[in-house]
Design goal:
The chain is of the alpha+beta class. It has a single domain, classed as Beta-Lactamase. The chain has four helices and six strands. Strands 3-2-1-6-5-4 form a six-stranded antiparallel sheet, with helices on both faces. The longest helix has 21 residues.
């Protein structure tokens, strides 16, 4: 019988991938696949990156790399939903029960909890990693550390590519 996978073990895998990744896109792809496959309660893993709509004069979150079911939310306005809250405040948002949070933009009836961590480049939020779980209160302090670390690694890679 194999022992359960710990967030610290996956963190080391992600660190190794970050050292060998050739681009932020490659790293985001690895993170999506790794977290969704190795962390049993992570049912949807994806990245939203901030884009500018020059015509409308506004910024929004655009869905990038992801693993899981399709989502109708491929473009999210800042200040909208849990993703918009994380991007707007620059703070990680953990929701133990999405049905109790009015900000939640329903994607799947199966989603019970969510974590969103912003990605920073030179002190500015440029995107975020978003993870949904079919389990309530799925995200522990160790999960938060792992997800925030993944966001930090992507930010550093984007900065390096600069």
């Amino acid at each position: 019988m194999t022992s359960p996978i710990k967030a610290a073990d996956v963190l080391r895998e992600v660190d190794d991938a970050a050292r060998s990744a050739r681009s932020a896109d490659e790293l985001m792809t690895f993170i999506c696949d790794c977290l969704q496959q190795r962390m049993l309660k992570y049912n949807w893993v994806g990245f939203y990156m901030i884009q500018n709509d020059a015509e409308a004069g506004e910024r929004f979150l655009q869905l990038g790399r992801f693993v899981g079911s399709m989502t109708p939310h491929t473009r999210i306005q800042l200040h909208q939903g849990i993703c918009g809250a994380a991007a707007s405040t620059g703070k990680t948002v953990v929701v133990d029960d999405v049905n109790q949070d009015a900000r939640y933009l329903a994607c799947s009836l199966e989603t019970k909890s969510e974590i969103v961590a912003p990605i920073f480049v030179r002190g500015q939020v440029v995107g975020e990693i978003d993870i949904d779980s079919h389990f309530p209160a799925a995200f522990t302090a160790d999960d938060r550390k792992l997800v925030e670390h993944c966001a930090e690694l992507v930010g550093l890679m984007i900065e390096k590519q600069g």
